[in-house]
Structure formats: structure tokens, C-alpha cells
Amino acid sequence: QVQLVESGGGLVQAGGSLRLSCVASGSIFSIATMRWYRQAPGKQRELVATATSGGTTNYADSVKERFTISRDNAKTTVYLQMNSLKPEDTAVYYCNLAYPVTQRNYWGQGTQVTVSS
Predict the structure, then answer these.
(1) Backbone phi, then psi, for 31, in 5-degree steps?
(2) Residue 28 — φ and ψ, nearest 5°?
(3) Beta bridge partners of 11
(4) Rounded distance, CA 117 to CA 96, Å?
(5) For the chain, how big is the Rg over CA atoms in Å?
(6) Does residue 61 carry a pLDDT above 90?
(7) Which of helix, strand or coil describes residue 19?
């Protein structure tokens, strides 16, 4: 029932910015924890950023001070603002929704971010 649809990926030069969006449907969005992951070719999927229902945010060390996760509960949307992009940020980015207690979670389809040098 839950569906996550991502958008905003693309090709950008190093130092540029992108904003990813993920719209959730069929979910009780306001109580869910939202996360962004990324996976580069040949690498494991890694957690990039987390936004809890209570407003707490966390970031991977590699993106701190450059990326910002935010959420708009009225729009059931989570965003990832990415600034000062580096080639090593190139990956497929996925949003994830997790419910409390059960930790049942759902994945978006992914959106490609490519940063050229």
C-alpha cells in the first residue's frame, strides 16, 4: 500500500546543488521515520540522512554540513538538499519510510545523482 516516489536526481557539476524529493502515499507519514540512502556501483548501500517524526536529524559524516534532510508532513514529502556536491556523491539515492515499533519499512525506486568533476 505504501508507495514512495522520488524525483530531483540528475547530472550536476562538482560544487553544484540538487534537491531530492520523495512523496509518500498510503502511509501514516507523520509518525514515520524517513531516511535517505545511497548506493554507488560496487559499494554497499549506505545511510545518508535520517529525519524522525519528532524532528531529530542525523547525517553520515561524509555529508555533514553539505546535505540537509527535511520533511513536510502536510505534503507527505521528505527532501534532501544537497550542496557542494562532490564526485564521490555519485550514486543512486533511495528514500525509506519506517514505522515505529514494528520498524516495517518501505523503499522508493531510487533516483540517479551524478556529479561530474
Answers:
(1) -100, 0
(2) -95, 80
(3) 114
(4) 29
(5) 13
(6) yes
(7) strand
